[in-house]
TrEMBL record:
Membrane topology, record value: Multi-pass membrane protein
TM segment ranges: 12-30, 37-54, 66-86, 98-116, 122-145, 157-175, 181-200
Record InterPro entries: Gly_transporter
Keyword Transmembrane included in the entry's annotation: yes
Organism: Corynebacterium lujinxingii
Pfam family, one: Gly_transporter
Similarity comment text for this entry: Belongs to the UPF0126 family.
Protein name per the record: TRIC cation channel family protein
Glycine transporter domain mapped to chain residues: 13-85, 99-173
Length: 271
């Protein structure tokens, strides 16, 4: 498969968009963790380029695109610089990180699928490359930060949208509608992710398992504080404030409830 000039230009626009957003999100995460300039740049670059590096290594088709095209490193640097100079916090930051992450899923799923098509692979490896490209950066970022990768706990928000986006791209390509498929697939993934986030718990297949809940959510429930997984930083601040203001009796009651829920959740997971 060969891309037309317009489709090729659109491909780079989509992939650069993903690099810019991922570098900005990664850089802001490093900034909030008080990393120095080296750690800051490292996290920004890993977040934005790891998925492409892994994809290109699997294809074994010469040097990775990020090494042969300076535009990738330049775009990642710009994204990191935005995160370094612009202060995003509170609900603004949480909303940006949430929507930036799901937008990158769509654009990188398209990029991974097209890489597979250009290499004349069939639909199975094309979908695999889409998932790797879409999730590789965030997975590597979480591993470096010693966190459980969101890939393992939020598949409905990452893997499934990437698969759907890749399938749409493959379907359009079958009818030689390449650039139309690129746009449709890039838009479909974030729409699906948002739909699942807001309404997925109505279906058992997409329901969030209790064992996946973060610590601040579990403590917030025990303390009677409302939390939102889409706003982890803000939720953590509310829980921290509640812990500081709680009396000894309230803390003991919250700890008892937390431990009871923890034992109950772990027992269900092993059943």
């Amino acid at each position: 498969m060969e891309l037309s000039d317009f489709a090729g230009d659109l491909y780079f626009v989509l992939e650069y968009t993903g690099v810019l957003l991922a570098a900005t999100v990664g850089g802001t995460v490093a900034k909030r963790m008080n990393f120095d300039i080296v750690g800051f740049a490292f996290i920004a670059l890993i977040s934005s380029l790891s998925g492409g590096f892994i994809r290109d290594a699997i294809l074994n088709d010469g040097p990775a695109a990020a090494l042969t095209n300076p535009g990738y490193l330049i775009t990642a640097t710009i994204g990191g610089a935005i995160a370094y100079t612009v202060t995003l916090k509170g609900r603004l930051w949480e909303n940006f990180r949430f929507y930036a992450d799901i937008v990158t899923i769509g654009v990188w799923a398209v990029a991974g699928t097209l890489k597979g098509l250009v290499a004349d692979l069939n639909w199975v490896p094309c979908i695999l490359l889409a998932v790797i490209t879409a999730t590789g950066g965030t997975a590597m970022r979480d591993i470096v930060l010693r966190q459980v990768p969101a890939l393992f706990t939020s598949q409905k928000m990452t893997v499934f949208p990437a698969i759907i986006s890749s399938a749409i791209m493959l379907g359009f390509n079958h009818f030689d509608l390449v650039w139309q498929g690129m746009l449709a697939a890039a838009v479909a993934a974030p729409i699906f992710a948002v739909a699942v986030y807001f309404g997925g718990d109505r279906f058992s297949f997409f329901a969030t398992k209790e064992i996946e809940r973060p610590l601040e959510e579990k403590l917030g429930y025990a303390l009677g504080v409302k939390t939102d997984i889409r706003h982890p930083v803000e939720s953590g601040e509310h829980v921290t404030q509640a812990l500081e203001e709680a009396t000894d009796d309230q803390l003991l009651g919250a700890i008892r409830l937390y431990l009871q829920n923890e034992v109950r959740e772990r027992s269900k997971a092993k059943a």
